[in-house]
Amino acid sequence: MEKSISKAVKFGAVLAFGLAVNNAFAVDACNEDMGHSGNGSNVSGNQVGSINGTPWGFEQWYQGGNATMTYYSNGTFKANWSGSSDYLTRVGYQYNGNGIDHKTKHFTVDYKYTKTGNAQYGYIGVYGWTKNPETEYYVVDDWFSKPNEQYIGEKFGEITVDGAKYTIHAFLRQQEPSKSGTSTFVQFFSVRETPRQCGHIDISAHFKKWDELFTGQNQQLRGSKGGGSAQLKFGNVTEVMLMTEAGGNASGSVDYTYFNMSDNGEASPVGGGESAQSSTSGDAGAGQGAGQGAGQGAGQSMGGFDMGNFDWSSFGQGGGQGGGQGGGQGGFNFGDFDWSSFGQGGGQGGGQGGGMGGFNFGGDQGAGQGGGNSDFSNFDWGGTGDNTGTDNGNTNQGTTTPDPVAVNPTITPVDNGGAFAALPTDIKAVNAAKTYQVFNATGRYLGTLEVSSGSTLSDAIFAKFGKVGIYMVKSGSKTKSVKVTH
Questions:
Q1: β-strand partners of 93
Q2: In 308-403, at which residue ranges do the beta strands (DSSP E only) sit?
Q3: What does the alpha-carbon distance between residue 283 and residue 22 come to, in Å, rounded to a whole number?
Q4: What pTM, to 2 d.p., does this model score?
Q5: 120 with 80, same domain?
Q6: Overall domain count for the chain
């Protein structure tokens, strides 16, 4: 019985920490204060360039009137314009040549901004161009005047992502200014139904939806000079940028005080409005301690939770009360889960799992009380003992496998404010330059960090933030704890 409780605690801690990573260590651009950092660089006239020390570039382009742009070393920027027939200011990724296949990356951006002024038209959100074929595209989160089909074309579909519905449109620009000079090209739009001035955009979710809708078919489109037939296909991206555009004798200003764009981001759930992983009806108590209340409502009406490739190598010791109610959960996927250094369980496990659709441990399915059969016969419990699981269905007691990495029982978990217990780790020098998101021990976002090849994360963190302590760094779906002791 004691060993079964230990295993339940370990599992409860897994659920708690998994949800904590997606909640406590999720960027919240609307509530976090980033602000401008570093010396501002002023831009006048039409210019394109790179922002030193970052993977991003900038561009200002306008026709008529006057305009200035200022960008900062953390990617934030601001701009002013007056009397412009068309004005664009933007920061983000730029790719030379024929661009890149967007499916090789996963683009996301978190932003916050304020605006003033007026314009006959204006789009605020994500912007870029493609090649083969040449197209111009927009993911519109806000505007000066709401876009209408006269200028963005008829509706081809819709996508619900990042908390709202976007309608999808296509329009033909006929012999208009473009990246190649003056040409005829298609514009693609995803327009948010309700505007906002801060938040998270899963850019690649829109790219994927456009690929589904626009497969190369020829279609009659509205256009800037009467319209015509065009091939609808999304090409290789040559830029992916956060942008404000204002036109029609426009005057105004924007100030982006939060900017964090990634080409290795995480996918947002599509089709269910708010993120299924952070369902407002479902994560009460999840992530409060390593296991305490784990899953208490954590998956009510949840479509699924994928932790298949999560790196737990520095997670440390579990503790607290595991279990909780998981009624109505669609399933948890731990297919490629690395348990080798997960640590030691403790406290009391248990709780009801009524109605759970099942747990996927790379081929072994089980459920808690109230449903299904528990089969953990091939599961590696890291030497915790026999693998007995009891439910209202069947019990399968399998053979355990010793933990390949010994856990040092003398190591004391670091108290980092209750988000979870993290063991200090030695982070080896990185093999190639990489960009990380950095959080403090309580989950507060601190900013981005560019680590050059051969440097260690702890050295780079200390050089930028200047304080010792426990930090969390995140790159894509990987999260690690780093102890800085300089």
A1: 240
A2: 332-333, 359-360, 365-366, 374-375, 395-396
A3: 11
A4: 0.58
A5: yes
A6: 3
